[in-house]
Amino acid sequence: MSSEIELQSNSYLFGSNAPYVEELYESYLDNPGSVADQWRDYFDQLQHLPASDGREATRDQAHAPIVESFAQRARANAFVARAQEPDLAVAGKQVYVQSLIAAYRSLGARFAELDPLKRHDRPVIPELDPSFYGLTESDLDQVYAASNSYFTKADTMTMRNLLKALRDTYCRSVGAEFMHISDQAAKRWIQERLESTIGVPAYSTERKRYILRQLTEAEGLERFLHTKYVGQKRFSLEGGESFIASMDEVVNHAGENGVQELVVGMAHRGRLNMLVNIMGKMPGDLFAEFEGKHTEGLTDGDVKYHNGFSSDLSTRGGPVHLSLAFNPSHLEIVNPVVEGSVRARQDRRGDEEGNEVLPVLVHGDAAFAGQGVVMETLNLAQTRGYGTGGTLHIVINNQIGFTTSDPRDTRSTLYCTDVVKMIEAPVFHVNGDDPEAVVYVTQLALDYRLQFHHDVVVDIVCFRKLGHNEQDTPSLTQPLMYKSIGKHPGTRKVYADKLVAQGVLAEGEPDQLVKDYRQLLEDGQRSIEPVLTDFKNKYATDWSAFLGAKWTDQADTGIPVAELTRIGERITAVPENFTVHPLVSKMLNDRRLMARGEHKLDWGMGEHLAFATLVSSGYGVRITGQDSGRGTFSHRHAVLHDQKRERWDDGTYIPLQNVSDSQAPFTVIDSVLSEEAVLGFEYGYASADPHTLTIWEAQFGDFVNGAQVVIDQFITSGEAKWGRQCGLTLMLPHGYEGQGPEHSSARIERFLQLCADNNIQVVQPTNSAQIFHVLRRQMIRPFRKPLVIFTPKSLLRNKDATSPLSDLATSHFLPVIGEQDENIVAADVKRVLVCSGKVYYDLVHARTEGSRSDVAILRVEQLYPFAHKAFQAELQKYSAAREVVWVQDEPQNQGAWFYVQHHLYENMAEGQRLGYAGRVASGSPAVGYLAKHQEQQKALIEAALAAKFKGYMLTK
Hints:
The chain is of the alpha/beta class. About 40% of the residues lie in helices and about 15% in strands. It folds into 5 domains: about 5-85; about 90-195, Helix Hairpins, CATH 1.10.287; about 210-520, Thiamin diphosphate (ThDP)-binding fold, Pyr/PP domains (Rossmann fold); about 560-810, Rossmann fold; about 820-955, Rossmann fold (3-Layer(aba) Sandwich). It is elongated and about 110 Å long. Belongs to the alpha-ketoglutarate dehydrogenase family. Its EC number is 1.2.4.2.
């Protein structure tokens, strides 16, 4: 039989099987040595097939014509020797063998032995049975080609051996999902890693002892706490102890592969165990927290299972810095915070691929499937502004979710991890009662992330021995599950018995390990050695310069006019042969005149000069948001686009990246359409980098509503709870211009309600000099506090809101701006109007039109912390005035009124009366009808300036 006949008889070169042939041919093109000799010889011949135009085909010929040639040859029987017909029966069975292999790779996870409780019968999956393909018992000992698998180095295997290898690899303690990945190289990498070991790790006796020690410590801590601190919440890890073995492998294997830092985000379950048994927190310190010890320096503090921690550990590969992020009860909200912190650390190191800093996210099964921020964070993974080189996800899957409800109500997907398929991340489900398999897939997953810089998931299927918390009685609603759990001896006992049966341990050794660890806990000593107490990480951020600084409103933010002009010329220049849009060209020309002092500065130029002077001084700037490059209202144009560019990936120029040769980085990102995840990311970034002005800008201020959890749980309370300073800046467009309820209010009242203990800053600047100074002040002062800026919309191009260049040189940010009209005589003033934001200009115009000289107008530019001295100094100028009226655009139950009235009252003179002029209370932020908006706006201005004020008045 010729080689062609043999190839035909023992494979399936037929049109209906083109996908298999195509895959072999792709492997051949990547590496000719990766396919069997017969296939390689055959493909070598195909390299010289005539092309359609009569020329000889070349090595890089597209494979589609080759596959088509297979089909044509099959139809014409062209490559069968004249002397012999092909054995179609054998060829057909070979097809079925390949289909069986593909079925196990795709569906094997569904048949895997993943549940430690064994509560359900394994499903019937016909595609995994040879009989589905018409194969019989007599076929099992036939030899078939196995060149498309990695079970053996030989080209062939009996079907019996092949079937056993498939079941051992894909249907035992590990269930792998990876066939949804479109990257062929990634799929083959996973296939080779799994199939070359038959899915079974080969660990030494010493390694097995080490794994048992990890389980012993995990179980031992939980049982110790359960008996010593009865009834206290700790969110026990019992039932999921293999997680500790998994995390230990993450830390050590990451160290072996050059990772220098790991940042971990996780919710409550297992957190205390992680702190003690992985990070080396002293058990005695944890016990003190159970006994009510407070952390000094914190105004409020937090419960012990929310707190973060960091340590430097000695691993198999050297020192590794491990940080556990602080996390509130909103579970998965920590995901983007971790990613932002990691990105900041990577940027600081110049770690562009993410080889040195690794994010690790630990999830609960119900939260992973149920919380939308998970999807939002996954969507950031491969984007330019937010990618971190891939995240290692570990799921502590207790199979019941957040409480003792029916598991059928926890999700609509087959697996809790199905959401990650949106980014084609592989998932390795593993039985938590097989700790060796857990460690094995953890190493596999980490290697995948380091190799492909892509997200990957380890889903540890385990159980929860106790309730959602230790005060719960889960058997009330889950009697069947908890009967099974009650009979389960525990993962440590299962594994210890296995090692004794294997002869790895003597009969009494596991019990001795338990006693030894118990004694360590009694003594309050750690079991993690060594924790490196004197290790110095040269990339660590020193926050000491920002701690303990007293609040001040002032900072020297002025820049000499000559320097402003020089910088202004740089940021308005474009490269030669770069064609900007005519509207942008006019804007650049106008800004050039502004920099020369020939025109007043508009808002966009005030911003640009603030950014440019900061990066020139060594402060980085990072601004992100859905329209940040151009600006939602087309006022920024930080990114210029060549109008003659021919490709999507080129043709942009960012002037602020070209201020000087030695400047700090300037980054501007048009974010994905997300608020919660993006704001969480930027909070994490700012918390890890105090030397970068980190800004998140809402497309409209109202949209910050979608990130309220980040505001409440991190931005406004993080310092009080955890002592974490953060200089994050929020820019929230705010203003009533008749755009309806969703585009008017950034909810000033919500932020002011959260203000206390100088936790954040809330400002509403009204001209370009003010935005210049407040942005520079944010970095120059020696402390870091979140800054919330209510930015304008109509004022962006309002000539009244412009500033002379000299105001950027000689002035500073003014928390209160007094009366600006020199014609207003203080002794003649009968009423003082106090306001914030755009309404100031409406009042000024109306006063001018009405020729009112008995009304003074004060602007509060910084609402919190309220500048009492500055405000009092301005108000005292009008001691003869009997009326002080707060004026706002917002409805009475919104805006700043309820917050600001007591500050105004406190600074009023005896006999003065306090009033309110604005919209009436409303359940909606603004009306949707333009005519009604204009009617309301006219009414509130008229009320403020009425000859006799009508409305609420409070006399001091």
